[in-house]
């Protein structure tokens, strides 16, 4: 990333891209293979919404828009919900961890 | 779009995709060709941020996430700022109109 | 879209954004609700890949990159496969029509 | 990423997301600040097209679509052109390195 980017933002961009990768990959591999409640509309939509807001928040930080504070706030909220729903289903530890870590980073970036 | 989608949301998705198209195309064609204040960081970043939030809000409505209310609220805010900045520069009527129309549609979708 | 954009490209951008909207919305609403073979990995992945390449091809035309010829060629190929798979499952006429129409438009744009 | 993902694909996803980040951030910070030939349409469009195809190729690998071979082939081509154009302008070493590294990884993934 560009050399002017501050370290906290740089770390948050990486958290967002990692959480995007884990959520999308888990939904399209693990959840589709498991079936059942893993492909119920509420859970699967939350996984896809989480992947998308992470991708978008990273984008806003990369283009250096001051509105990244708002996308990061929304990202923290969706990631937290996604972590809780993955915990409820069980056996999705990698996704839970990526969401919690991204939520924390985005929350501090939002202030 | 899917036949269950309500007409107001359907219209808002179309407004968002239209505003995304106009902002991105105008930035990458009109603004790069004009140069000067059209490629100053503040204006150009606002154009790109506007295109991205419009693309994302359409995505949230298409996947039918309840969080579309928050992305639409943010979209309305960025579109309004983008319309004002395009008005300030002048000769960007198509972009001003697309942003104002999208802002109005997103604002009502956010409630 | 920007006034310099030629009419054929303008139409292709609209076809791509419409096919993106229909595929994503149908996958996340119709397919998740139907379950069964609609959420089998092969079909669902094809729907999501189709939505993504349509979104990307529109983007390449909007930024006016000469590489849009290659993304449009790939888009035509994926749309054709997606139309065939939706036809096989049945009761997905809107998606079949959007994919066929987008494939045709992208194929002519690719030359 | 999902535990079934093979190591070479995992590495390629990371290369793509890194090149996406570097190209987008460099365009929107370094290039807009430098002005002159950095914001000429041909160079700037290539930077944005490179960011977009990297983002898309990562997405295709994450959703585990067999069409990732085609998006990776296109990604390798655009990254190579982008590296050459950044080299021509000079003082864009980070971008040159990210593009070359991503091109190599995508080329081997395309076979």
TrEMBL record, chains A, B, C, D:
<dbReference type="InterPro" id="IPR044543">
    <property type="entry name" value="YHJQ-like"/>
</dbReference>
<dbReference type="Pfam" id="PF03860">
    <property type="entry name" value="Csp"/>
</dbReference>
<protein>
    <recommendedName>
        <fullName>Ferredoxin</fullName>
    </recommendedName>
</protein>
<dbReference type="InterPro" id="IPR005560">
    <property type="entry name" value="Csp_YhjQ"/>
</dbReference>
């Amino acid at each position: 990333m560009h050399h002017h980017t501050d370290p906290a933002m740089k770390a948050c961009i990486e958290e967002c891209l990692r959480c995007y990768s884990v959520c999308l990959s888990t939904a399209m591999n693990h959840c589709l293979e498991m079936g059942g409640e893993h492909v119920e509309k509420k859970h699967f939509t939350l996984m896809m919404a989480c992947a998308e807001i992470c991708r978008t928040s990273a984008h806003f930080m990369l283009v250096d828009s001051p509105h990244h504070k708002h996308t990061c706030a929304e990202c923290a909220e969706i990631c937290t919900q996604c972590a809780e729903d993955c915990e409820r289903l069980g056996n999705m530890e990698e996704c839970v961890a990526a969401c919690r870590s991204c939520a924390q980073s985005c929350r501090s970036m939002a202030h």
